[in-house]
Amino acid sequence: MRYTGPYIGRFAPSPTGPLHAGSLVAALASWLDARAHGGRWLLRIEDVDLPRCAPGNDEIILGQLARCGLLPDEPPVWQSRRGDLYAQALQRLVDAGLAYGCACSRKDIAALAPPTRHGELVYPGTCRAGTGGRPARAWRLRTAGAGCIEWQDRRLGRQRQDLEREVGDFVLKRADGLWAYQLAVVVDDAEQGISDIVRGEDLADNTPRQVFLQRLLGLPTPRYLHTPLVLGANGEKLSKQNGAAALALEDPVAALRAAAAVLGLRLSAGDLPGLLAEGVAAWRAMMPAIEDPQSKESP
Questions:
Q1: Does the annotation flag 11 for ligand binding?
Q2: Is 222 annotated among the ligand-binding residues?
Q3: In the chain, which ranges are E strands?
Q4: What is the mean pLDDT of residues 137-148?
Q5: Fewest CB atoms within 10 A around its CB: which of 79, 135, 141, 256?
Q6: Of 242, 217, 299, which Cα lies nearest the Cα of 17?
Q7: Is the pTM here over 0.85, yes or no?
């Protein structure tokens, strides 16, 4: 089902630390795309993995975005307060026979299916027919018969992934009781009416799982655009996990200009309002046009 409503974009940082240079690129790209299409821009704090989210980081992120002039059109929402929505979605999948309890530990899975995909474990479907009396540790989505999930990225072009072979039955609710990112993000995007997801290229690999979940839950599939990554000195993606420094915002114009350069935009305005206005015009000129976000064509 294709999304046919008005343009609504979002930025969804995880508060495991303050924003860094890479996360500002994603924030700016999503904001520019929303403004270039006359749409709304929302902010969602993805704190579903509570043990990794230090108290106060969410407020730091909100302050960093405000200092850069990137203000959401609605009050932010927090994933940690939306568990009832995720529980309802999981129950729908369980009732339809599309999700099941899994008793396997990572050690169990590794013994049967060594890591083959970006170092991750491809689940071999051990508990599809039942746990053999063992208590369920997590809940997984059945991918048998999913085939190749194909989707169109506005920057990367046509993409495809054999979900069962390359990913396996993936987790919807973790063994520690926390909600998995894949389920939470799909439910949240649909509930907020998100039409366009603009995020870093490292998350493109998640898209087939999310598209599959959208189809099973009868939810519309947004348009996707995955942006270039900021790389660290070691050539890997700049991230909080590899020690990325918190964003220095003594000069927000300079920080935004650097982020825009990663996106292929050369901006010259010296003040914040002027730079953002220049960025919207440059983004509109650079990015291929998408269908009219007000279109009501049938999916």
A1: yes
A2: no
A3: 8-11, 40-45, 77-78, 99-102, 138-141, 148-153, 157-162, 171-173, 196-200, 223-227
A4: 93
A5: 135
A6: 242
A7: yes
